[in-house]
Amino acid sequence: MIFVGLVATEPATQGCGYGDALLEAINDIMNAAKLFMWLTSSNVLNDAFYNSHGFESIGTFYLGEGNPTWTEKPTPVQIRVQEQA
Q1: Could you tell me if 36 and 2 are in contact, meaning their C-beta atoms sit under 8 angstroms apart?
Q2: Residue 2's beta-bridge partner residues?
Q3: What share of the chain has pLDDT > 70, as a percent?
Q4: Which one of 3, 24, 35, 81 has the minimum C-beta count within 10 Å?
Q5: Alpha-carbon distance 67 to 51, whole Å?
Q6: What is the greatest pairwise CA distance in the chain?
Q7: How far apart are CA 67 and CA 30, in angstroms?
């Protein structure tokens, strides 16, 4: 299992294919090792990007839920998995 901690690009370079290239490189490593990868995402604007790379949402947890020191509304965080091709 490979956890993808962060996929991000500078706003000015978004849409140029850098994120695609990064996930494709990780995907090549994953397939060679016969593993799957997973990540978490708290931004629904990224859903289409992750869906296009075969990630499926398998659950959601809420960051800050039940934490008395959390001062904001709980943040939904999706758990997404991409199984080996």
Answers
A1: yes
A2: 37
A3: 98
A4: 3
A5: 31
A6: 44
A7: 35
What contacts 81, CB < 8 A, 6 or more positions away?
36, 37, 38, 55, 56, 58
How many whole angstroms separate alpha carbon 34 and alpha carbon 23? 16
Question: What pLDDT is recorded for position 50?
Answer: 94
Question: Global pTM?
Answer: 0.82
Measured between alpha carbons, how far is 27 from 10 in angstroms, rounded to an integer? 22
Contacts of 83 (CB under 8 A, 6+ apart): 36, 54
User: What whole-number distance in Å separates Cα of residue 84 and Cα of residue 27?
Assistant: 8
Q: Are 41 and 80 in contact (CB under 8 A)?
A: yes
The answer as to CATH 2.60.40.1930 being correct for domain 2-82 is no
71 vs 7: CA distance, rounded Å: 27
For the residues 47-70, what does the mean pLDDT come to?
Answer: 95
